[in-house]
Amino acid sequence: MTLLVLGLALFFLLHLVPIFAREARSSVMSRIGALPYKGLFALASISSLYLVYKGWTLTDPVFLYETPGWAYHLTALLVLIGFVLFIASNAPTNIRRVIRHPQLTAILFWSAGHMLVNGDNRSLIMFGGFFIWSLITIWGSNRRDGEWEKPDKVGLVMDAVTVVIALAFYGGFAFWAHDWLIGVSPMPVT
């Protein structure tokens, strides 16, 4: 459990630096250069994710609550919404006119869905951590960036393309990659 918590803490703290420690970040970048800073940031991020992975695999799950049967369907919907928002965050869509931080909001949907269907201690720590981190990051980003200037309106075709791409990624991940990467099928056959 210690490695899991350490990995999550490192990941979250690293990703809060650009929001809450901009001056320190700028100071380090001016001393070592932007490219080395980005390289060290990427290396530290990958290391933190490795710690999360190792911590997850070494922690014996202790179940704290039982998942209701309907939760799997709701989780599938929440994660699908997360996929759409995640793809929309990097595309010119009208979704970005409605939701200021679609990528962070996607993480909220993803983590909430996973907490719903995973009633064990390590899941609550990991997905709960991502949920809280996303809320803090949204709040900090709004505070840092000031008033929201919404992007220009785009044609509905861009929204439709984004949804189709998200559905394709979601389908591939839900029906194949999740089981291959994580070892658990999110689409139980019952």
Task: Offer a few descriptive terms.
globular, 190 residues, mainly alpha, 2 domains, single chain
What is this structure's SSE topology?
Blueprint: H1 2-20, H2 22-32, H3 34-58, H4 71-88, H5 95-98, H6 102-117, H7 121-145, H8 156-182
Helix pairs in contact: 1-3, 1-7, 2-3, 4-6, 4-8, 6-7
Mean pLDDT: 94
**Domain module count:** 2
Shape annotation: globular
Uncertain runs with pLDDT below 50, 5 residues or more?
A: none
Structural class based on helices, strands and sheet pairing? mainly alpha
N→C terminal distance: 32 Å
Count of alpha and pi helical runs: 8
Q: What's the total number of strands?
A: 0
Subcellular location: Membrane
Pfam family, one: NnrU
Main location: membrane
Membrane topology: Multi-pass membrane protein
How does this model look, in words?
It is a single chain. The protein has 8 helices and no strands. It has helices at residues 2-20, 22-32, 34-58, 71-88, 95-98, 102-117, 121-145, 156-182. Helix 4 runs antiparallel to helix 6, helix 4 (71-88) crosses helix 8 (156-182) and helix 6 (102-117) runs antiparallel to helix 7. The protein is globular and about 50 Å long. The mean pLDDT is 94. The chain crosses the membrane at residues 70-89, 123-142, 154-177. InterPro entries: NnrU_dom (IPR009915).
